Amino acid sequence: MNMFAEKIRMRPSARNTLRPLLLAATILPTALCAQSLDTILGQTELLESNRDPKCEATAARLEDFIYGTPLTQEARFRKHDLQVNLVSLLWSKASAAAQADKRSFIDKGDINKTASQLFLAQGKLDGSWRIVAGGDEILISARDFRQYTSVAYALRAVLAVQQEQLFGSSAEEALLELSPSAVDALKLQVDLFTLATLNRADRVARAKSEHELTETRLVSAWNALAKVPQRAQLDKAAPSGSQQTKGGYPVLTPLIERKIASYEAYNQISGPIFLRNIQVYFARHGWPSDEEKGTQFKAQFTELMIQFSRDLLLGSQQIAAQAQHPLIRPADVGEYARRFVPHEVNAYEDVIFFPRLQDDQRVTLEAYDLDAFRDPGLHWRYLQAAMESVDEPSPLEPDPFAAELLVENIAQFGVLVLRLAGEASREQGHKVLSTEDLKLAVSTIQTRVKANAEIKSETPRKSSQALQSAQGAQSAGAFADVSKASGIDYQHRSADWLARRLRTYTPGEDGVGNATIPPAFGGSGLAAEDIDNDGHVDLLFLGGAGARLYRNQGDGSFKDVSREMGLQWNRKSDGLPGEMRQPIIADLDNDGWQDVVITYVDEAHRVYRNLQGKGFEDVTEKAALGGAGAVGGPATVADFNNDGLLDIYIGYFGDYVRGALPTLARRNTNGGQNRLYFGKGDFKFVDVSKGSGTEGHGWTQAVGHTDFDGDGLQDLIEGNDFGVNAYYRNLGDGKFAEVSAQLGTDKPSYTMNVGIADLNDDDLPDIYISNIVTMNKDQKYVLPGAETSMNFNPDKLANMRVVEANDLFLSVAASDRAANVAANTSDGANAKQGSLPRYALSDRVGRGYHSTGWSWDADFFDFDHDGDMDLYVTNGMNEFNVYSTQNAYYQDPDGNAQDVRFADPNRDTNVLFANQDGHLENITSGSGLDLVSNSRSAVFFDHDQDGDLDVAVNNYHGQAVMLENQLKAKVQHWLQLRLIGKPEQGINRDAIGARIRVLTPDGKRHWREVHGTTGYLSVHPKAQHFGLGAADMVDIEVRWPNGSVQTLHEVAADQRYSLAFDGELERY
C-alpha cells in the first residue's frame, strides 16, 4: 500500500456544522436493489481495471475530442442529466416488459427492444455503428465507439438511477433487477445515443461557426434524435412519504472501494516512486531525510487533504439541499469548487488556479503532474476518510458524476498545496519540506482566493475585436488544378536514410515497437521567386528526392532546370540526396540576383550563389552555416542589425538521429540550439548566437520575423513544437530579449507555422499560429512527469485525436491607435516605443465542417482582390496509421506507392478562410483549394500574370499541386510593388523588413511587410501584391528599414511596379 494511503479519522471537534437539510436520513437498500447495485459496480470495476479508470478531466477531454467541439461545463452537466433520463426510461419500460412476462429481472433483450423504439442501432463487422434517429442517419466509427465506451459514462448514469431508487422512489416506481447482460446493453445503448447526439451537435455547431457546444445546442440535438421525458427526480428532493432509514453513504462507500481496486489493478504504484514524484514534480523540493519529520509532514498533509475533502463534500451538500436536489449533482460540486478554490482547465487538462489574478499570482498545474497524483487512487481515499469523519451524514450523497468531480478537485488541491509548499520552503531557505511550509501554502491559497474574489471581472483572454474587412461579401471564385498543364511534376518523398529510419522501431509493449523518430517531424519546403530576373516567378520544391527548380516560361508553364542550374547535391555516404527542409531565396550578396539557401537534417546547410541567372555556384564552405550533426529545420533571412547585409536565423529540432525524444513537459528544452548568423558580405557569415538571447533549445518547427514593437528593428518569432513559442525583441547591437510573457503569447503550443499580417488596421503585425492539441487516448503513462519521454507507438498514434487549435493573436497597441500609427509613419519613423504591445487571442475565426486539424503552413493573401487579407491553411494528418502494424508502408524506399487510408480524410482538407464582415469565414467547399491531401508548404504568386494570386502546394509524400485562381471579377483592382534597397544606406537590396501602406480614396489602408520567409518552410515572392477592390488609383507610403519614409501619390492600379530607394516608380 502507498505510504499516503492510510485513513485518518477526524476528531468531532474538527468538524464543521452543516445547516439543517431537507432530508434527514438515507434509506437502506432492499435485497433487489442491492443485487443490481452490486452488478453495476462490478461491471464498472471490470471496465476500469482493464481500460484505465478515467479521471473526470480526461473523460471530459475525450468527449471534447471525439468530434472536435468542446462542451461548456453547463452542457456537460446537462449531458449527465440526459443520460440519466435515458437510462431511467429504458430501465422503466424494460421492467414493465419483464413484469408482463412474469419475470423478476431484466435481460439484454428487454433493454434492446425498448431502445429500438427510440432509435435504430446497427453494428457492422468493422466495429462501426449506424444510428438512425429523428430522421438523421449517423455513422459512428469503430475508433470513436471503442474509445468512448472505454469510459464509464453510461455506467455512471445507470448507477445514478439505482441511487435514486435508494433515495426517494415510491414503491410504484420500483425497477426490476438488472442482469449483467442488461447492464451491458444499457451501457451500449446510452453510449451509442450519446455519441450520435455529440455528432449531430458538432455538425450544427460547425455550420453555425460556434466554438463550443452550449447546453441549448446539446439539448436540441438530443431532442432532435429522440424525445426522452424529463423526470422530476432531477429537479427536486424525494417525496416526504418515501421510506427513510438512517445510514451512511450506501452507494458512494462501495463505489469508492471498487474505484480503489480499479486503480490498484491498473496502476501498480510503489511508495518510493510516489515519494519521488512529490519531491521532483509536485513540491519540486526535497523530502525530509529525518524519519520523524517526514512522518509529521505526511500526517499533516493527509489531515489537511481529509479536511479539504470534507469541506468540499459538505459545501456541495449544502448547495444541493438549497436547490432541493435528491442527490449532490455535478453542478453543485462545480459551483462550490469555483467559490472554494477558483480555477479553470485548459485544452491540455492543465489547471490554472486564481485565474483573475496577474500571471505571477496564478498557479498552473500541468496535466501530467495531476495524472501522477491520481494514479495511486489517493484522491478517492481522501474522500473515503472524509466521509467517515462526518457524524450522522446527510442523506444527500453525490451521484456518480458528482463523485468524480469531487475527487478531481481533491487531486487538484493536493498538487496545489504541495507546489506552494515547495515554493514557500525555498523562499524560507529550507533545504527540505516542513510542516511550516504546509501552513504557509494554505495561507497563500486563502490570500489568493480572497484576492481573486475581489476582482469582479476577469481580464478578457480573447479579443472580439472585428477584423478589417472589405464592404460586402465577395464570391469565392474557384481555383482549378492546372498541375499537368503547368508542367510541374514533383513527387515529394523523404530522403532514403530517413525513410528507413521512419520504419525503424525500438522494442515496445505487446511486441509492438516504438518509432525512433517523433512522427511530428516531416515535410519539406517550397519557395517562389524570380531567379533569372525575367519578371516571372519561378518555383523551388524541396524533398528527399532532391531539389527541383522550375523556371516559369511566361505562358503559365514551367520547365525543370534543376540539373542545369547546379542545385543538385548528393551525400557522399550513399550518393543520394539528403533530407531537405527550408528553402531561402534572397539576394545575400546584394548583387541584384537571388541566391539560394537550403537547410538540411544532419548535413551542412547548402548555400548557392546566383550566377546572373545562368546557374548557381556552391559556396557552402565559405558561408559555414553549420548543420552537420544536428536536425536543422526552419530558417529565415532578414537584416537584424540594419547594416544593409542580410543575416540568417536557423531553427533546430530535437536530435532524433541520435535518440533524442521530447518529453511531456509543456516547455521542452532538449531540442537543438538555434543559431543566429550575421552577414559580413560576399557570402561570409559569423555565428553570433552566444549571448545574443536567441539561442533557444526548443523543438523548433517554424521561424518568422517582424517588427512587433515598431522600433524599426526586425524581431524574431520562434515557433516550437512540444513547447512554448519564443518572441525575441531586437534590442539592437546583436542583443535580443524573450518577451512572450509580456506580449501575452506564452501559451503551450505544438506550433507548425508562423503567419503574419495586420488584420485590425493598427499598423502592428498580427500573428497566426498553426497549433495542434492532441489526445493519444490509447497511450498509457503511469506516474508521468515533465521528464517522462513521449512514447511514439505507431499503432496507438494511428488512433490519436487532433482538434483544431490554431491561434490568431491580435495586437493591442501600447497606446492609442493614433499614437501607434504615428510611430510607424513619417511622423515617428524609427522611434523607439516605450512599451510593448499586448496580444489577445481572437475569436474571429470561423469553423465550418472543414476543420483546421493538424495544420502546417498558414498564411494570408487577398485571393479575391476585395482589399482585405484572407487565409489559407494547409492540413495533413501525419501518417501514424501508415506506419502502424495494419499498414506498415506508405511508400517504400524505391518510391513505390502503397494503398493507405488517411485518418478522417474529410477533416484533412486544406481550408480557405475569406475575410468577411469582421471575421475569417470558412468558405472551403467549392473553392477549389479544398485538397484532401497531406499538405505542408504553400506559396502565393501570379504564375500566369493575369493579375491575381495563384497557389502552389508541396504535399508530404505526395504529388505537388498547382492551383490557378480563375476569379475574373473585373471590377476588383490590384497592384504589385517590388522594392529595391540601397545597402550603402543600411537597406538590404531585397528591402526585407520594409513596410508598405497603400491608401485607397475611400480611406482604407492596406499593410504589408517584406519578409524573407513566412509560414511553414515557405517563401513567397518579395514583391508585395495588393487587392484594391474598386479603387483604380492609390497613394503609397514605404517605410524603409533605415527609417526613411517615401510617399507616392495617385498611382494607377492594375500594374506591376518596382521602386528603388530614393528612386522613381517604374513599371515592369
List the helices and strands and how they pair.
Elements: H1 31-51, H2 56-67, H3 73-100, E1 105-106, H4 108-116, E2 120-123, E3 129-133, E4 136-140, H5 142-148, H6 153-166, E5 177-178, H7 180-207, H8 215-225, H9 252-266, H10 271-282, H11 291-322, H12 330-340, E6 343-345, E7 351-353, E8 363-365, H13 367-374, H14 378-388, H15 400-427, H16 435-454, E9 462-463, E10 479-481, H17 483-486, H18 496-502, E11 505-506, E12 514-515, E13 526-529, E14 538-541, E15 548-552, E16 558-560, H19 562-565, E17 580-586, E18 595-600, E19 606-610, E20 616-618, H20 620-623, E21 632-638, E22 647-652, E23 675-681, E24 684-687, E25 699-706, E26 715-721, E27 723-724, E28 726-732, E29 735-738, H21 740-743, E30 748-749, E31 751-757, E32 766-775, H22 794-797, E33 801-804, E34 807-812, H23 817-823, E35 838-842, E36 855-861, E37 870-875, E38 911-916, E39 919-922, E40 935-941, E41 950-955, E42 961-965, E43 973-980, E44 995-999, E45 1005-1009, E46 1018-1019, E47 1024-1029, E48 1033-1039, E49 1045-1052, E50 1056-1060, E51 1065-1067
Parallel strand pairs: 1-5, 9-35, 13-46, 43-50
Antiparallel strand pairs: 2-3, 3-4, 6-7, 7-8, 10-42, 11-12, 13-14, 14-15, 15-16, 17-18, 18-19, 19-20, 21-22, 22-23, 23-24, 25-26, 26-28, 27-30, 28-29, 31-32, 32-33, 32-34, 34-35, 36-37, 37-38, 38-39, 40-41, 41-42, 43-47, 44-45, 44-48, 48-49, 50-51
Helix pairs in contact: 1-6, 1-9, 3-4, 3-6, 3-8, 4-7, 6-7, 7-8, 9-14, 11-12, 11-14, 11-15, 12-15, 13-15, 14-15, 15-16
